[in-house]
Structure formats: structure tokens, C-alpha cells
Write a structure and sequence with these properties.
- With about 220 residues, this protein is mainly α.
- The protein has one domain.
- The chain has eight helices and no strands.
- The protein starts with a helix and ends in a 10-residue tail after the last helix.
- The C terminus is likely disordered.
Length: about 220
């Protein structure tokens, strides 16, 4: 307990030495952590069971049993089920209408994948900039002291002011680096899931196309 309180006290001392710029940097760290936790939970629950869900759906569509397909989509809510459900509403429409509806439904799912990721981009960009601003302010204050004493200042005092000024740069980078890493991780997850939605949505269109939009039989000209 004493060791924990000691570490906390040391951390607070460094924060105080960093100056007022440390406050927005800490706020960015808290926001980034909240977004990262929320996205990790979201992507963990955003699962597409192709074998258990899609294959039976395609089989039912091939049999023309759209009511069963709709029932399975309602009983098993998942991103692919929501897209397929949107397509079932347009089975009596032209194929282009079906593709358009599935495109809109797919875009809604992609938007859900991108939620809050813009916030991570902003935090990753401004955190090191705020750290640099804090360092510049600290350096100005340190050299201002030198000017006040007309150069007759203890070098250790100047060095102390400089390292305190550099604390904000270190804090800003400490926030930005893990944020950038997690942002790239989430971007990769988003691209992979968006590709799967597009792939399986296309399979559903082909299945609907064979069943509900058969090509006209060729006529033999005598």
C-alpha cells in the first residue's frame, strides 16, 4: 500500500512539474483508454459465424423458403443477418434494387465499425503537439530566468527547468504511441470485417439471383 501511494505521489509530482499543458494530455489519455476499451468489447462481440449461420441461410434461399430465412435473421442478430434481412425486403424488386439495398445496409455496418475511431486519430495527432507546446512554454520560462539574472544563473537550475519542460513531450508521446498502435489494429479489424460482409453479401445476392431472378430461357430460332 505504501509503495503504491509512493508511486502515485511521484507521478503527481511529475505532473505538477509539467505545468498546465499536462491537464489536456491526461484528458486525452483517459479518452483514448475509454475508446480503446469500448472498441475492444465491440469487435469481440462483432462475430460472423459463417458455417453456423450463412450456409443454412443460403440453403433456405435456394429452396425459396424466405420466411425461414427471415426468422433465422431475427432470432440470431448479427451484422450479416441484418444485411440479409434488408435484402429479403426487396426480393420482389429488380436485382439492382436488391444490390442497392444491401449496399446501404453494408455501409451502416461499416459506419458502426468506424465508430469513435476518428477520435483516436485526433488524440494520436494532437497529443505529441500539445507535449511539444508544453516543452516550448517551459523552455521559454527557463531562458526567461536566465535573462532576468543576466546570465548569472546556476547551470543546474537551468538544467532543471529544461528537463521539467521536456516532461510534457514525454507525456504526449506516451499517449500518442499506444493510441497509434491500437488505431492501426482497429483499422485492420475493420478492413477484415468489411471484406467479409462484402464477400458474404455477394454470396447472398448470387443465391437470390439464381432463385428469384432466373435468366430467361434461350429461344431456338428455326
Amino acid at each position: 500500500m505504501g509503495e503504491t501511494s509512493g508511486l502515485f505521489g511521484a507521478a503527481m509530482a511529475y505532473i505538477n512539474k509539467g505545468g498546465i499543458i499536462m491537464a489536456p494530455i491526461i484528458l486525452c489519455s483517459v479518452l483514448a483508454l475509454a475508446i480503446i476499451i469500448e472498441r475492444l468489447i465491440f469487435f469481440k462481440s462483432y462475430f460472423i459465424d459463417v458455417e453456423g449461420f450463412l450456409n443454412p441461410i443460403l440453403k433456405l434461399v435456394g429452396e425459396g423458403n424466405t420466411s425461414k430465412v427471415l426468422e433465422r435473421c431475427q432470432n440470431n442478430p448479427n451484422p450479416l443477418g441484418r444485411i440479409i434481412k434488408a435484402g429479403l425486403d426487396e426480393k420482389e424488386m429488380p436485382r439492382w434494387k436488391l444490390e442497392e439495398k444491401l449496399t446501404f445496409a453494408g455501409q451502416e455496418e461499416v459506419n458502426a465499425l468506424e465508430k469513435n475511431m476518428r477520435g483516436l486519430e485526433v488524440i494520436a495527432t494532437i497529443s505529441p503537439l500539445m507535449g511539444l507546446l508544453g516543452t516550448v512554454i517551459g523552455m521559454v520560462q527557463a531562458f526567461n530566468k536566465v535573462a532576468q539574472y543576466k546570465g548569472q544563473v546556476d547551470p543546474s537550475l537551468l538544467a532543471g527547468g529544461i528537463w521539467e519542460a521536456l516532461l510534457t513531450t514525454a507525456a504526449g508521446l506516451s499517449v500518442a504511441i499506444p493510441t497509434v498502435i491500437m488505431l492501426h489494429y482497429f483499422e485492420r479489424k475493420k478492413e477484415k470485417l468489411a471484406f467479409q460482409l462484402n464477400k458474404y453479401g455477394t454470396q447472398f445476392i448470387y443465391s437470390m439471383d439464381r432463385k428469384f431472378y432466373p435468366e430467361p430461357s434461350s429461344q431456338v430460332v428455326s
